Amino acid sequence: QVQLVESGGGLVQAGGSLRLSCAASGRTFSSYTMGWFRQAPGKEREFVAVISRSGGITNYADSVKGRFTISRDNAKNTVYLQMHSLKPEDTAAYYCAASRNLYSTGSYFSPGIYDSWGQGTQVTVSS
Fold it and tell me: Is residue 7's pLDDT more than 80?
């Protein structure tokens, strides 16, 4: 099991930007499909973005497509989520997650395929 630590959250005005980072332990980081999820109070955990092991494939929730970008640097054992044009509805705790499964168009959005989770970092977008 890989250990994950998120950072970069904070308070930002609507229309602003933030970059989240997720640092992973271990020497097999490149073996993991990596995802970002978020959860607002009283809401279910929802998929945000995913990136394949080599970074060649990405996908996004419709609600963030065109505004968020996921990337990874396997040499640094780090995955990123660059967020632009933030909206109040983006307010949530953001979690990175690692999966031993290969990227799949049929399941990348499902929390159940992810084996390890970070502790979360709070993103708050004000009006």
Answer: yes
Q: What are the structure tokens assigned to 34, written together?
A: 């990596």
pLDDT digits (tens, 9 = 90+) for 46-103: 999 999 999 999 999 999 999 999 999 999 999 999 999 999 999 999 999 999 999 8
Q: Which residues face 4 on adjacent strands?
A: 24
Collapsing DSSP to helix, strand or coil, 25 comes out as: coil
Phi then psi for residue 30, to 5 deg, are -70, -10
CA 30 to chain CA centroid, Å, is: 16
Give the strand pairing for 58-60 and 46-51: antiparallel
Question: Is 33:103 a contact under the CB 8 Å cutoff?
Answer: yes
* pLDDT in the model for residue 26: 79
* Of 78, 47, 51, residue with least CA distance to 63: 47
Task: Tell me the three state secondary structure of residue 54.
Answer: coil
| Calpha distance 65→126 (Å, rounded) | 20
